[in-house]
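STRUCTURE:
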């Protein structure tokens, strides 16, 4: 998907390489820190194994499968999965780095969209973990690449389930706002600003039943304002299946995922796998 260019062309100072790098660092760090910032609970125990709601976890929790106990509600199981901490990485990990020759394992195949949904977001993905990941990628791309607060708000208004993020609480809206602020622009964006968000790696943090998935995506973020700067930005969200489509679900946004330059040794080590369009 190409980066969207805003409508307004404000006067802007000369953009040096140093200023571009500062902008990208600001945007990348804001995106990483704000996506999932509401989560403060740290889970230290594994869900006990009982018959009930299945919860499948990814490598950061040793790849174990666990289930909710009789006294544990479905909502509690979902909250524990979302809040489970993810690997911490240094801020420098988001910068472009050497491509690894290691084999990250089988790619995650993303199903194709079948049509455009509300706010122009591609949709029609199946009720599978991969479908949830593909839908989140489409949502994030539409919001961030709008390069405007109105665009990001329109996306979350159409793609949040009741009780989910709002136009004022969604971390991605805040990230877009900080991007524009760092660029010295208003909330309407600028014709000089182009943002491209490309999903390159990801993982399925876990699932609870068949209608709750926490997918995580590691994006390449390209910001152009006379010059182009690149970095990584990651996002995890609670995805719920409602009315034949995936939406961002209710509850605190998941624990912050590692933002790592895709394709590096570190990206593979934290559990990310390559994404491939089906």
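SEQUENCE:
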């Amino acid at each position: 998907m190409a980066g969207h260019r805003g409508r307004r062309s404000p006067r802007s100072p000369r953009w040096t390489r140093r200023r571009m790098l500062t902008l990208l660092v600001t945007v990348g760090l804001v995106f990483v820190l704000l996506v999932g910032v509401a989560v403060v609970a740290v889970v230290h125990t594994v869900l006990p194994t009982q018959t009930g709601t299945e919860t499948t976890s990814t490598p950061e929790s040793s790849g174990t499968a666990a289930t909710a106990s009789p006294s544990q509600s479905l909502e509690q199981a979902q909250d524990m999965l979302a809040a489970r901490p993810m690997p911490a990485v240094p801020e420098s990990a988001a910068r472009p780095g050497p491509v690894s020759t290691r084999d990250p394992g089988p790619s995650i195949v993303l199903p194709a969209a079948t049509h455009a949904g509300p706010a122009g977001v591609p949709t029609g993905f199946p009720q599978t973990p991969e479908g949830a990941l593909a839908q989140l990628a489409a949502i994030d791309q539409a919001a961030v690449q709008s390069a405007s607060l109105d665009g990001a708000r329109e996306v979350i208004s159409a793609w949040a389930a009741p009780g989910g993020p709002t136009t004022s609480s969604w971390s991605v809206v805040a990230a877009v706002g900080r991007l524009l602020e760092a660029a010295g622009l208003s909330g309407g964006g600028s014709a000089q600003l182009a943002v491209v968000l490309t999903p390159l790696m990801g993982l399925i943090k876990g699932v609870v039943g068949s209608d709750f998935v926490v997918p995580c995506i590691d994006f390449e973020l390209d910001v152009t304002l006379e010059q182009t700067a690149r970095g990584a930005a990651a996002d995890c969200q609670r995805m719920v299946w409602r009315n034949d489509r995936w939406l961002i679900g209710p509850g605190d946004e998941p624990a912050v995922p590692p933002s790592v330059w895709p394709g590096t040794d570190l990206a593979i080590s934290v559990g990310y796998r390559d994404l491939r369009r089906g």
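REMARK: Confidence is low (pLDDT under 50) at residues 1-17, 32-67.
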